[in-house]
């Protein structure tokens, strides 16, 4: 299941799937930077959840987290909660073996 967040200047709408996410994760998906724009790496990380999670998408999430710093890195790091809840057990096991989680 994928999650979609739509951001328009001055307006934010959430797909029904996102409303089912835990409160903390939903707040992370809704955060924008001080200029009112989605954070680039965070936006890319969120896009990974639009399709079924694979080991490749988890590697990409890990890479994005390492490329960022500060609050944006913290927000990407907290997306791992969604990974733990949404990914197949085989994908999670491989991620553990690779040290991703």
Please describe what this structure looks like.
- Helix content is 57%, strand content 8%.
- It has helices spanning 16-19, 23-30, 40-47, 55-67, 70-78, 80-86, 89-97; strands at 5-8, 11-14.
- The protein has a two-stranded antiparallel ribbon with strand order 1-2.
- It is globular.
- The model is unreliable at 3-14 (pLDDT under 50).
The value of Rg in angstroms is: 13 Å
Strand order within the widest beta sheet:
1-2
Mean pLDDT: 74
Shape: globular
Structural class: mainly alpha
What percent strand? Answer: 5-15%
The low-confidence runs, each spanning 5 or more residues with pLDDT under 50, are 3-14
> Biggest sheet: strands, sense, closure?
2 strands, antiparallel
Count of strand segments: 2
- Tell me the number of structural domains: 1
Distance between the termini: 21 Å
Count of DSSP-assigned helices: 7
The share of residues in helices is 55-70%
SSE succession: EEHHHHHHH
């Amino acid at each position: 299941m994928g999650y979609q967040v739509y951001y328009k200047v001055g307006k934010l709408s959430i797909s029904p799937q996102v409303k089912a996410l835990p409160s903390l994760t939903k707040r992370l998906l809704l955060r924008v930077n001080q200029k009112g724009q989605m954070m680039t790496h965070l936006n890319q990380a969120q896009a990974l959840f639009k399709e079924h999670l694979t080991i490749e998408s988890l590697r990409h999430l890990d890479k994005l987290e390492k490329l960022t710093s500060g609050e944006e890195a913290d927000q990407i790091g907290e997306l791992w909660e969604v990974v733990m809840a949404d990914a197949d057990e085989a994908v999670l096991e491989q991620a553990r073996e690779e040290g991703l989680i």
